[in-house]
Amino acid sequence: MQVCLRFKHAGDSSIEATALPDVRGWEYGGKERLNGEQVQLWQYEARHEAKRVVYRFYATTEGVPRRLDMRGQNSLSGAHLDHWVVDYTHFVPGRPAASLFHTPELCKSVAPQTLPTGRRTARQTRLLSLVPTVRYRGDTEYDAFISSSHGIGRSHASLADYEHRAALFRANLRMIEAHNAANRSFTMAMNRFGDWTRDEFVALMLPKRDRMLQRAAQRAQQEGKAPVGEGQQGRQGQVVQAAMQAGQRTPFSQQQILDCSWGTTDNEASNMACDGGDPWAAIAHVVDSGGIATLADYQYEGLDNYCRANRTRQVGRFKGWARPPRYNNAALMEAVYSRGPLAISFDASRPSFAFYSSGVYVDTECLYKPEDLDHSMVLVGYGSSEAGDYWEVKNSWSTHWGDGGHFKVLRDGHACGVASDAAYAVVADSVL
Q1: Cα–Cα distance between 214 and 221 in angstroms, integer?
Q2: What is the distance between the alpha carbons of residues 78 and 312, in angstroms, rounded to a whole number?
Q3: Is residue 235, in this structure, part of any structural domain at all?
Q4: Active centre residues (catalytic)
Q5: Burial category of 95 from C-beta neighbours within 10 Å (exposed 0-12, middle 13-18, buried 19 and up)
Q6: 98 with 121, same domain?
Q7: Is the residue at 94 inside a domain?
Q8: Is residue 230 part of a domain?
Q9: How far is CA 240 from CA 29, 120, 268, 328, 360, in A?
Q10: Which Pfam family, an example, fits this chain (predicted)?
């Protein structure tokens, strides 16, 4: 059964999602009272990288669902993050006839969205990841995937959705196997993107590119032209996360940048938290606000939140930002050596990059001009290997991606934009 769920949260949103979780494997928590009624409780705990989510599902002794409660917590600090509650207003067992289905009153104010078949928006994907998995079975390889750490939090709205995701997974698996069999300079491996569509990957991981593509498509429709493709500017959301003083690294707060460096949505270079931004705009925010908190004082939560800078000790001081000369490998190497890690932009839109695992990355079809780059990361070093000279870069897609969250890319040639749009913070006379 599918219904429109109302998620009670700051900035309420309604999405269409599978209503009932599969509680097989959950722990029975005994009987409790909910809204004056005796109910039974089932509990389940899941970890999403730095986030711990505790699910509680309440139902009557007759099996009528009453509530699904989801509470997030920072795995490291123990700080409470978000709290989602789904209350079931009515329930009829079995599959209703389509002609009998009616939209609940609480959903009628939600404007319908027109999306390509099988595609979810970035916001929908993030919300649905909080809903426990409804399990279908039938594809052995895909079943193993959704039972692994890569498939955690998977939710399928229907058998058709399960089959669609399984087909995406098989296609990506065959691509990975064919690449690795060719014995190239880098390997690919299955990861959490294995059953995503191309549009979903761009929307969630490269949100600014997605917005640009949508605007280009709208302009093209108005002008009667074909939509512009991959060559659009995209997300540049990673900022330089540490400065060095007296030989020591001082980690600064990523969460403060997410929460506080917002711009206007009409500005292409504005920062919009989990939906993208620019390193130089983040540094400009720190300069204008008089500093930035340390990671210990303003811990990472992995989601959008309210700005707490006015209640947090601001210690990091910067004068501004600067760029090495573009397309100059020697100058960039010197900057890495003398300045430390730099923010760089990159064409992360290639399927080969999404599934990178190890080795020296090479893709001759990737873009490199500044206006074509869609993702920002941290350049941490350089070196040489049998495959050639390379840059070493730290990505922001967790340690479960790539080589512990890092990758190497061939330094010869354009390197998918590494030397095209690098920037670094200019430290004040007293950074702390």
Answers
A1: 11
A2: 18
A3: no
A4: 375, 395
A5: exposed
A6: no
A7: yes
A8: no
A9: 44, 30, 20, 20, 23
A10: Peptidase_C1
pLDDT category of residue 379 using cuts at 50, 70 and 90: very high
Q: What phi, psi does 218 have (nearest 5°)?
A: -65, -45
Entry field: residues in the chain: 432
Give the per-residue pLDDT at 199: 85
Q: Check whether residue 108 and residue 146 sit in a common domain.
A: no
- Give residue-wise pLDDT tens across range 311-370: 777 776 777 778 899 999 999 999 999 888 899 999 999 999 999 999 999 999 999 998
* Domain range for 19: 2-112
340 and 264 assigned to the same domain: yes
DSSP designation for 416: G
Structure tokens at 258: 């997410």
Residue the block writes with tokens 């800078």: 309
Element (H, E) at 329: helix 329-339
- Give the number of other CB atoms < 10 A from CB of residue 264: 7
Of the candidates 241, 233, 172, the one whose C-alpha atom is nearest the C-alpha of residue 207 is: 233
pTM above 0.90, yes or no: no
What does the angle CA 385 – CA 239 – CA 247 come to, to the nearest 5 degrees?
A: 65
Whether 305 is in a domain gets the answer: yes
Q: How far apart are CA 178 and CA 188, in angstroms?
A: 10
Task: Specify the CATH number for the domain of residue 174.
Answer: 1.10.287.2250
Among 158, 185, 205, residue at a domain's last position: 205
Distance CA 223, CA 242 (A): 46
Strand ordering across the sheet containing 37-48: 27-34, 37-48, 51-59, 65-74, 80-87
State the pLDDT at residue 264. Answer: 45
Q: Following DSSP, what letter does each residue of 343-373 receive, concatenated?
A: EEEE---SHHHHTEEEEEE--TT---SGGG-
Residues 287 and 383 in one domain: yes
- Distance between CA atoms of residues 413 and 399, nearest Å: 27
Domains contained in the chain, number? 3
The CATH number given to whatever domain includes residue 297 is 3.90.70.10
- 289/396 same-domain check: yes
